[in-house]
Automatic annotation (TrEMBL):
Cell compartment(s), UniProt: Cell membrane
Alphabetical list of Gene3D superfamilies matching this protein: Carbon-nitrogen hydrolase
InterPro entries: Apolipo_AcylTrfase (IPR004563), C-N_Hydrolase (IPR003010), C-N_Hydrolase_sf (IPR036526), LNT_N (IPR045378)
Domain CN hydrolase: residue ranges: 227-454
Membrane topology field: Multi-pass membrane protein
Similarity remark: Belongs to the CN hydrolase family. Apolipoprotein N-acyltransferase subfamily.
Highest taxon of the lineage: Bacteria
GO biological process, one term: lipoprotein biosynthetic process
One CC-aspect GO term: plasma membrane
GO molecular function: N-acyltransferase activity
Protein name per UniProt: CN hydrolase domain-containing protein
Residues passing through the membrane, by range: 12-32, 39-57, 77-97, 118-138, 158-187, 194-214, 460-481
Length: 489
C-alpha cells in the first residue's frame, strides 16, 4: 500500500508501514555503520526510507521515524563508547547523533518539497557533510564518528579522499540515498527531473570510481625507497601496572621486547615499531631502559620506535622515542590529542614529530592523533614519506580504528605503519591498501614483517585541506541566511 501525502488522510496502516520501514532502516544503520566495516554497502541505502517519509508525513512524525532508525543504528557503537568514554557520555552521544540526523532529514525533505528544482537532491549530502565538518573542527573525538570510515575497505571509492579528504566519501554515500528518494518524489509528483538526476548520478559516481580505479591501476612503486618494517606487540599482561611495579620488572619487560626486536632484525627489518605506552619510563629506570633499546638498535643497525608512559617531567606524558641505527635518540614525540577521561593524567604535546631514516622523511604520531585529519595534514604539508603510529585500541574497534589511520595516508599521500595493543598491526600504502596485517585483539604476542614503498604522493587534500566540508558549511549558512530574510519579510 502506498503511503499517502500529507494533504490526504493518513490511515493507521500507513503509520505501521512507515514504522516497519524505519526499523529496516535502523537495521541497515546498525550493520552498515558498525565497527567491522563488513556490511558497508548498507550505509548507501539506510537513509532512503527516512528521506521518503518526509514527503508524506508531518515534520514531527518524520523526525521521530528518522530519530528512531538512526538511534537503532548507533546502538552498534554503544558498548564500545561505554568502554571509551563511560556510561553518561556514551548515552549523550548515542542520543545526540540521531537528533541531528533527524533534524537534517526533516530539513532535507522540506527543501525538496518547497523548491521546484532537481538541485534539491544536494540538500541531504550538503547538510550532513557540513555537520561532519563541524565535528572535525569542534569535537574532542575529531572525525571518529564520520560515516566515511564505514567505506574504508572500498578501495576505489576511498581514493576520493586524496582530493577532498573523507568529506568526499561522506558526500557521495549521502548523495546516493538522496538520489533514490528524490527520484521516488519525481515519479510521484510528476516532476521532470529524472533526466537531470540520472546524468548527475552517472557523472559524479562514474568520476569517483574511474578516478579511484585509475589511481589504483597507475600506482607508484619504488624499490629504491622501499623499507622493511617489523611490528611487535607482546602479551597484554606485560603492559599491566602490576607487571611494571619495580625497576627489575620494567627492565624484564624491556628486555623481552629487545629480544623480539632482534629476531625481527635478524629476518630483515630495518625499523621496528612497538605499540603505545608499553614501558613505564621514570627517573629511576630511565638509564636502564634507554640503554637496552639503544644497545639493541646499535647492535642490529636498525631504528626502534617505542611508546612510553613518560614520568620524566613534573606531569606525565604519552611519549614515543625514536632510536636511530647508532643507538642515539633521534627524536621524542608527545601525543597531542589525548583520549578524554582515559588520559587525564597526561599533558598533551604541541607539535608534529618528524625524523630521517636515511633518505626517507618519516613522521611519528600516536593513536588518537590519527582521528584528526586537520592535524595529520601537517605531516602531509611536511611531505613525509611514511608515518609510524604506536597505538592502543579497545579490542572491539580493532578494524575501525586501524582504518581511520589508514585513511589519513590516502588523504595525504604516504604509507602508514601502525602497531596497536589490543588492536591490529598494519602496514598500508598511500592508496589505503592494508598490504600486511595481523590481529592483536586477543592479547597474545603478535609480530608482523612487511615491505612498503615509502615516498610522498602529493594530494589536493594536503594542499587545500577539507575544502568540500568548508564549502558545504558555507552553502548551509547562506541558505539559512536567505531563509531567515524571506521569513522576516
Amino acid at each position: 500500500m502506498k503511503i499517502q501525502p500529507p494533504n490526504n488522510a493518513v490511515k493507521p496502516m500507513h503509520y505501521f508501514l512507515a514504522a516497519g520501514a524505519s526499523l529496516l532502516s535502523g537495521l541497515c544503520w546498525y550493520l552498515g555503520n558498525g565497527l567491522s566495516g563488513e556490511y558497508w554497502y548498507l550505509v548507501w541505502f539506510a537513509p532512503v526510507f527516512s528521506l521518503i517519509t518526509t514527503y508524506y508525513f508531518s515534520p514531527k512524525v518524520s523526525f521521530w521515524l528518522a530519530f528512531g532508525s538512526y538511534f537503532l543504528g548507533r546502538l552498534s557503537w554503544f558498548a564500545y563508547l561505554h568502554t571509551v568514554v563511560s556510561f553518561l557520555p556514551a548515552i549523550a552521544i548515542t542520543l545526540a547523533l540521531p537528533y541531528v540526523y533527524a533534524r537534517i532529514v526533516v530539513k532535507s525533505g522540506n527543501v525538496v518539497l518547497t523548491n521546484n528544482s532537481w538541485l534539491t537532491v544536494f540538500a541531504y549530502p550538503v547538510l550532513w557533510t557540513a555537520f561532519e565538518y563541524l565535528l572535525f573542527l569542534l569535537s574532542p573525538d575529531g572525525s571518529a564518528t564520520s560515516l566515511a570510515y564505514s567505506q574504508a575497505g572500498v578501495l576505489p571509492l576511498i581514493q576520493v579522499a586524496s582530493l577532498t579528504g573523507i568529506s568526499g566519501i561522506t558526500f557521495l554515500i549521502s548523495l546516493a540515498p538522496s538520489l533514490i528518494a528524490v527520484c521516488w518524489f519525481t515519479f510521484e509528483r510528476k516532476r521532470k527531473w529524472f533526466t537531470a538526476l540520472t546524468v548527475l548520478a552517472a557523472v559524479l559516481f562514474a568520476f569517483s570510481f574511474v578516478f579511484g580505479s585509475y589511481r589504483i591501476n597507475h600506482r607508484s612503486v619504488s624499490e629504491e625507497r622501499s623499507i622493511k618494517t617489523g611490528l611487535v606487540a607482546m602479551q597484554r599482561r606485560l603492559h599491566y601496572n602490576s607487571e611494571q611495579k619495580t625497576i627489575s620488572q620494567i627492565k624484564s619487560v624491556t628486555e623481552t621486547y629487545a629480544r623480539e626486536i632482534s629476531k625481527l632484525a635478524g629476518i630483515g627489518a630495518k625499523v621496528v615499531l612497538l605499540p603505545e605506552t608499553v614501558i613505564q619510563l621514570t627517573k629511576q629506570n630511565e638509564q636502564s631502559v634507554i640503554s637496552v633499546f639503544s644497545k639493541t638498535a646499535k647492535e642490529n643497525r636498525i631504528y626502534i620506535i617505542a611508546g612510553f608512559t613518560n614520568y620524566l617531567q613534573a606531569q606525565a606524558r604519552n611519549s614515543a622515542l625514536i632510536f636511530d641505527s647508532n643507538g642515539n635518540i633521534a627524536n621524542r614525540y608527545d601525543k597531542v590529542h589525548l583520549v578524554a577521561g582515559h588520559e587525564r593524567q597526561f599533558a598533551p604535546g604541541s607539535k608534529p614529530g618528524t625524523f630521517q631514516i636515511g633518505s626517507l622523511n618519516a613522521g611519528i604520531a600516536i593513536c588518537k592523533d590519527l582521528d584528526f585529519p586537520r592535524y595529520i595534514r601537517e605531516y602531509g604539508k611536511e611531505k613525509i614519506d611514511l608515518l609510524f603510529v604506536p597505538a592502543y585500541d579497545f579490542v572491539v574497534d580493532d578494524w575501525m580504528h586501524s582504518r581511520m589511520a589508514i585513511l589519513r595516508g590516502v588523504e595525504n599521500g604516504f604509507a602508514i605503519i601502525r602497531t596497536a595493543r589490543d588492536g591490529r598491526l598494519t602496514i598500508s600504502n598511500y592508496l589505503g591498501e592494508a598490504l600486511f596485517e595481523r590481529d592483536n585483539s586477543s592479547g597474545e604476542k603478535t609480530n608482523l614483517l612487511g615491505t612498503v614503498s615509502s615516498f610522498h604522493k602529493e594530494t589536493l587534500f594536503s594542499i587545500a585541506g577539507d575544502w568540500l566540508g568548508a564549502v558545504s558549511l558555507i552553502i548551509v549558512l547562506i541558505y539559512a541566511f536567505r531563509n531567515s530574510k524571506s521569513v522576516g519579510k
